[in-house]
Amino acid sequence: MKKAVITKFGDSSVISIIEADIPKLAKDEVLVKVKAAALNPKDILIRKGKFKKFSGKKFPQGIGFDFSGIIEETNNTSFQKGDAVFGMINGWHGRCCAEYVNVKATELSQKPDNISFPDAAGIPLAAQTALQALRNSGKLKSGQKVLINGASGGVGTLAIQIARELGAKVTTISSSKNLDFCESLGSHDSLSYEKIDIRKIDRQFDLFFDVFGNYDFSKVNHLLSEKGRYVTTVPKASIIKEQLKNHFRSKMAKLVVVKSKDSDLEWLAGKLKSNTLKSVIDKVISFDQIKEAQEYIETKRAKGKVVIEIN
Ligand SMILES: NC(=O)c1ccc[n+]([C@@H]2O[C@H](COP(=O)([O-])OP(=O)(O)OC[C@H]3O[C@@H](n4cnc5c(N)ncnc54)[C@H](OP(=O)(O)O)[C@@H]3O)[C@@H](O)[C@H]2O)c1
Asked: Taking the complete model, does pTM exceed 0.90, yes or no?
């Protein structure tokens, strides 16, 4: 089978498509014939060696954590050959940008019939990050106010919609050119980072979700209500320190670390089925253009997800 790999750490030139064996299944795994795989900033950070502590230094290393496709073989009774599925694999060894991928039965769900394979591939990592950040770490409740920074990217576009689904009043921060785009996804009020000075905003929010990760807790503390929460996606020294202080104050600072769970994928599948959540795809790119796809994500200008069509 064809499989995208990196042959060492570096820029996009280290990406190749090679011939590899079809994976063998372990207990409770399924083999998925991949139709589409989405890319994430995580793939780029791994390629650059930023997570080598976790990904290891053995090459070649596979690419991709998000997939959609059709079950070819199964070692789990919840799934049958021929099921259309979507999901995200956990850990630090990507392998979904390939013709086949082995996946634990807890890392996937049935794909809703009303969405395409590329649309389904764009959901799992980004939407589970948004859901787990807003609902679990942020404890966002109906009627509360959330401010989402980095709202027009892969995670942000899904966070806007999920926050609305949780009943929140949503304010977003993006570039000026994406203000209308954020409102089209459900933002009640969209702010441009080119025009605002975060220190001068005199409104209060129950949750500040820093998707882009350029505002530390100390910079947005003044925006949080008395028991307000700050959640970031970016693991920096400052958030590790802030988390230690949570016990001594009413405001909370949290780092979200996404985990693929069948219950969350099923929650998302339900919302997709009822058309209350939609996948936001910037580009669908062919498998042989995976280098260009990664280079595009590196520009940090993607409006939603970048998806690779495999089979
Ligand atoms: N901890 C976890 O489990 C986890 C999970 C998923 C993602 N992440 C991290 O979360 C971050 C976002 O991921 P993503 O998939 O959403 O990335 P992405 O799709 O690549 O984000 C692109 C977006 O970033 C926005 N952006 C660029 N500069 C900005 C700025 N100065 N202020 C606000 N927004 C800006 C752009 O909007 P404009 O063009 O409008 O500026 C663009 O829409 C990444 O660092 C990723 O590694 C962490």
From this structure: yes
One-character DSSP codes across the chain: -EEEEESSSSSGGGEEEEE-PPPPP-TTEEEEEEEEEEE-HHHHHHHTTTTHHHH-S-SSEE--SEEEEEEEEESSTT--TT-EEEEE--SS----SBSEEEEEGGGEEEPPTTS-HHHHHTSHHHHHHHHIIIIIIS---TT-EEEEESTTSHHHHHHHHHHHHTT-EEEEEE-GGGHHHHHHTT-SEEEETTT--GGG----EEEEEESS--S-HHHHGGGEEEEEEEEESS--HHHHHHHHHGGGSSSEEEE------HHHHHHHHHHHHTTSS---EEEEEEGGGHHHHHHHHHTT--SSEEEEE--
pLDDT tens digits, one per residue of 139-170? 999 999 999 999 999 999 999 999 999 999 99
Ligand 1 pocket, CB under 6 A: 40-42, 126, 129, 149-150, 152-156, 173-175, 178, 193, 211-214, 233-234, 256-258, 297, 300-303
Is the CATH code 3.40.50.720 the one for domain 126-255?
A: yes
**Atom 8 of ligand 1, nearest CA residue:** 233
> Taking the domains of the chain in order of start, what are their residue ranges?
2-123+279-309, 126-255
Mutate to test the pocket of ligand 1, among 233, 254, 296, 299 (most ligand atoms within 8 A of CB): 233
